[in-house]
Amino acid sequence: MPAKALPATGKKPGSKAWHGPRGTWPTTEDGKLIITQSMVSGFVQCPRETYYGIVLGLRPKLAKKPLTRGTWVHALLEVRGQGGDWKAKHQELIAEAENTMFEEEAAPLAKECYDIVLSYDWVYESKLHEVLTPIAVELTVERPMFRGKVLYRGRIDIIWIDENGDVWLGDHKTHATLPEWRYRELAFQHYSYLWAVETDKSYAALRYKGKPLPQPKGFIYDYCRTGAIKTPTLTQKGIQSRVVKPSGTTYPVYREWLIEHNMLSVIRGKDLLSIEDPTERVYVEEFLVELKHRDYSDLFRRDRLTFSPEQRKRQLKAFYASARRLLNYKWDDPDCVERNLDACSGFKCNYKDLTVADLIHGTSEIEQRTQYVTTRDPLDYYPNQDKKGKA
Which H helix or E strand runs over 84? Predict the structure, then answer.
């Protein structure tokens, strides 16, 4: 089967599963409402998506490939950030994928994710020599809002410290096309995380070389491009096909391919080509040289964002204004919940079928039961993923 079968659901206002005017809205043990930056951002973009995703707590039952690819790469980078063996984690995910996907789907997906992280590792460690030391991964931070009546909660992918002692909060992102800087510059995510750690106890408890961390200097969006790293093939004559150019692959991926096809050997730590044909040997040598020196910013990019005190104040005012609208919005009558036509018709919308069914038939209960699962955790974007070890 293409994806793991998950429990069915189906909720509507007035049903036994309904938890009041805010539905399955997450709360703390003492009853405080919880909000996250994604809840606020989602509401600003489309209130209807917030209704399905937060008020009803729905998540798509079958994980789409981009989601699976993103969580796979994210899991490997998380283990890497912890100083663990990401290749061992990769083998675990392969075994899991083989139980939930067709082999012809799992194998290329596993290969792509492996190539992305292998290349990521080489680009930042060996080529660019960026010194970013991981301090913590998957750190949940919180900060009270609105006089303590609401709790903001966020989960930071990774916290780095650089060679100058500056701390950076980071978030791993996978995209088929790397976005322009404004795509993130104008978002709530990075600012709200930086704002939360100012008073968060979990962040205050972190130590580096026995000393507490200073407040972060800024935020890093750590981009990885998907679907762009190719592997060469051999022709019937046993030489490398000229279809894949140096711009279409990376040095570590190409090097492993040469080793796999007995065209390169590692002797006493040195790479030696074992190609008899002089013309082919020259071609491969030049291919390797170009891969070593080419610019990889088309595949991997780190956007570092810092903010002036004045910009922080403007962002805080905008975030509070949007959060207040979210908390005061009326969800009692689903027919009154607004739709954003651009968002509802876009490829990123997870609830197209529900909003169409609700509009045409007055209910989407059948679609909810057959195609969705529920969660009350606003940070639980992927209910079918293993959550062991999460903060």
Answer: none
Summarize pLDDT for 111-155 with one digit per residue, the tens.
999 999 999 999 999 888 888 999 999 999 999 999 999 999 999
pTM of the model: 0.85
Pairing of strands 167-175, 218-225: parallel
Instruction: Please name the residue that has the structure tokens 């917030």.
Output: 50
Which H or E element spans position 234? none
CA distances from 318 to 54, 75, 218, 289, 326 (A): 21, 32, 19, 49, 12
Question: How far are the Cα atoms of 61, 63, 79, 274, 383 from residue 72, in angstroms, in the given order?
Answer: 18, 12, 11, 35, 14
Beta bridge partners of 223: 173, 301
Pairing between β-strand 211-212 and β-strand 218-225 as defined by DSSP bridges: unpaired
The Cβ of residue 270 has, within 10 Å, a number of other Cβ atoms equal to: 7
Query: Cα–Cα–Cα angle for 341, 56, 356, nearest 5°?
Result: 35
pLDDT at res. 388 = 45
CA distance 93 to 97: 6
- Give backbone dihedrals phi and psi of 123, rounded to 5 degrees, phi first: -60, -45
CA-CA-CA-CA dihedral for 301, 114, 155, 314, to nearest 10: 20
Domains of the chain, residue spans: 246-293
Neighbours of 80 (CB within 10 A): 19
Instruction: Output DSSP code: residue 158.
Output: E
Find all residues with CB under 8 Å of 274, minimum gap 6, and list them.
262, 263, 264, 265
Collapsing DSSP states into helix, strand and coil, what is residue 255? helix
What angle is formed at CA 59 by the lines to CA 58 and CA 62, rounded to 5 degrees? Answer: 140
